[in-house]
Structure of Enoyl-CoA hydratase-related protein:
Amino acid sequence: MSDSILVEVEDGLAHVTLNRPARLNAVDFEMGRRWRDVAVELTGDPTVTAILLDAAGPAFCAGGDVVAMAEADPGDGSAGEAVTAMARIIHEGILTLVRSSTPIVAAVQGAVAGGGLGLMLCADYIVASDAARFVSKYANIGLTPDLGVSTLLPAAIGQRRALTLLLQDRALTADEALEWGLVNEVVPADQVAARAREVADFWQSGAVAAFGEAKRLVRSGAGRAFAQNLEDEAQTIGERFGTHDARTRIAAFAAASRTPKNDTATTSATRKDHA
């Protein structure tokens, strides 16, 4: 089995680690196939209820390993076809993760460049190190966005800012990425892993299936007609309402709502009456 992406599943949480640190976790052909296979495997496993995505080494992901791809170019025009074929394989993995009902949190350190932005944006919640940096660099080497960047990036930060990042030699600091909406949180580098795990634990300690369906509704809704989204919402909430988990939680909520609460205004008035 390939070790370019490591997978460990424990108590329903799949820990997925990009593992080519010597190449800043840049994706080569083998790693691209591994990405697709891992995505299909984990989202198809009913025992996996959440995914934590991180990376080994000083960077999260430097995008595609264009150096390795260029070195493998025989010069007969077939290299471009191979890159297109590989992009489609990686895209299959991205589409599988984004459309799934499995919530994903990413722990991001160091550099995120090019297609690495697309892999990162598969996550529904992103915790970034205060030392993280985010760049495009596609056009700098004569290439165009792939790995979902042309769709996922403007969905996260808006079209105008996405164009700024893609059409200028602009690098975002972690704080800028937070301000732009590219990431959800920025924490000190030594706290990224722990904070990402806290997010995953929060999902799993609660109604994790409901969190996953909420993620799916939002992700799917971006590309569908409003009427389709409304019908999906109606079907999904009805299905959730009939589950044992929802019935138990609703009963607990109802019981709590019937418990008398201290009314500050009433208490103050009573004290004045006794005064």
About this structure: The first helix runs from residue 29 to 43. The chain is about 50% helix and 15% strand. Residues 265-275 have pLDDT under 50 and may be disordered.
